[in-house]
Description:
mainly alpha
Amino acid sequence: MKKKSKEEEVDELRPEYDLGELLKHGVQGKYAERYRQGTNLVLLAPDVARAFSSEEAVNEALRLVIQLRKLPSASEKKQSEADPKH
């Protein structure tokens, strides 16, 4: 499949954004070291991202989810209570 020429490419950037201004302060390789360390970068859905004020808030919430998963569920508690071996 042939690459599209510059004339054929569709400009999907909204008119209110100035590409030159957006790229002016960009830093090449900004996350390269994190990538080499094996850090996982995850793109959050917009509705999820709005629920958190910072990346630390996201990490805190995920750590809480991890801890909650370690707790026995209600059905596991009922089953162990009904089990005569306990």
